[in-house]
């Protein structure tokens, strides 16, 4: 089975304009993401709508394609890039352009989910470490069936543990945090980007609910590694400190 990584990267960002080009310990954030992905998959492209990002990627020897600035989601950008590249990969892995510490084990976990021929889309979950973190609406929760397929994603705490003090919920059920790494079979990606927004997606503002509501199957792998995304200049400073610690 052939895999390819596509990394969506926009220059415009409300909280951190130009973050793909921010310098993290001598390299741009986008270069660090790209190098992590290529080291595992062997082939990757950055999909951007900005000439500055395109040039930066080409300058460090990476591959990049220009895509429309009108996309409403990263998934749509991924599909356009796949069409431009004319990739023959069986599976396309979508790695966010602000995840410079994406780990080999996380990418490999997602890849192995496609050993199951029924897997159409794959993603990751990580067990929550505190009930306070579980209650954060910015950290979507996943509930799966016995075979590891997603039943639902929600910003609310799901499931509700009846007859149990909330302080004990984490000991009663393995609450799973959604990690926003996606992989799609090539033909499935082409299909889901043609779907209109669904009522559940609009209610929770979670794109993956559109796919579930239209009957697509999302296989969920489990990781014990926390991703370190960069959304703000403060996150970049924390990432700098993290790199110093591990080096």
Poorly predicted parts = none
Kindly provide the radius of gyration, computed on alpha-carbon positions and rounded to a whole number of angstroms. Answer: 18 Å
| Main beta sheet strand tally, sense and closure | 9 strands, mixed
- Label the structural class: alpha/beta
In short:
The chain is an alpha/beta fold and 247 residues long. The chain has ten helices and eleven strands. The strands form two sheets. Strands 1, 4, 5, 6, 7, 8, 9, 10 and 11 form a nine-stranded mixed β-sheet that branches. Strands 2-3 form a two-stranded antiparallel sheet.
List keywords for this structure.
247 residues; globular
Overall description:
The protein has 247 residues and is of the alpha/beta class. Helices cover 34% and strands 22% of the residues. The protein is built from 10 helices and 11 strands. The chain has helices at residues 29-41, 51-59, 74-85, 104-112, 131-134, 169-172, 186-192, 199-204, 208-213, 233-246, and strands at 3-9, 23-24, 27-28, 44-48, 64-66, 91-94, 121-127, 141-144, 150-154, 176-185, 218-222. Strands 1, 4, 5, 6, 7, 8, 9, 10 and 11 form a 9-stranded mixed β-sheet that branches. Strand 4 (44-48), helix 2 and strand 5 form a beta-alpha-beta unit. The longest helix has 14 residues, at 233-246.
Task: Set out the fold topology.
Layout: E1 3-9, E2 23-24, E3 27-28, H1 29-41, E4 44-48, H2 51-59, E5 64-66, H3 74-85, E6 91-94, H4 104-112, E7 121-127, H5 131-134, E8 141-144, E9 150-154, H6 169-172, E10 176-185, H7 186-192, H8 199-204, H9 208-213, E11 218-222, H10 233-246
Parallel strand pairs: 1-4, 1-6, 4-5, 7-11
Antiparallel strand pairs: 2-3, 6-10, 7-10, 8-9, 8-10
């Amino acid at each position: 089975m052939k895999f390819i990584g596509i990394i969506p990267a926009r220059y415009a960002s409300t909280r951190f304009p130009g973050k793909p080009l921010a310098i993290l310990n001598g390299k741009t954030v986008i270069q660090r993401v790209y190098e992590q992905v290529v080291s595992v998959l062997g082939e990757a492209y950055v999909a951007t709508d900005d000439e500055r990002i395109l040039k930066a990627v080409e300058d460090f020897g990476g591959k990049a394609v220009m895509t429309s600035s009108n996309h409403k989601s990263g998934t749509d950008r991924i599909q356009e890039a796949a069409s431009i590249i004319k990739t023959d990969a069986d599976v396309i892995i979508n790695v966010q352009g602000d995840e410079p510490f994406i780990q080999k084990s996380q990418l490999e976990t997602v890849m192995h989910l496609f050993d199951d021929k029924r897997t159409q889309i794959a993603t990751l979950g990580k067990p929550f470490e505190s009930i306070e973190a579980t209650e954060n609406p910015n950290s979507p929760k996943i509930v799966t069936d016995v075979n590891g397929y997603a039943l639902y994603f929600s910003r609310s705490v799901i499931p509700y543990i009846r007859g149990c003090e909330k302080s004990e919920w984490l000991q009663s059920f393995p609450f799973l945090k959604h990690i926003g790494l996606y992989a799609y079979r090539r033909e499935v990606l082409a299909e889901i980007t043609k779907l209109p927004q669904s009522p559940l997606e609009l209610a929770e503002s979670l794109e993956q609910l559109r796919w579930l509501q239209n009957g697509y199957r999302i296989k969920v792998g489990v990781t014990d590694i926390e991703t370190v995304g960069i959304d703000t200049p403060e996150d970049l400073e924390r990432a700098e400190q993290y790199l110093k610690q591990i080096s």
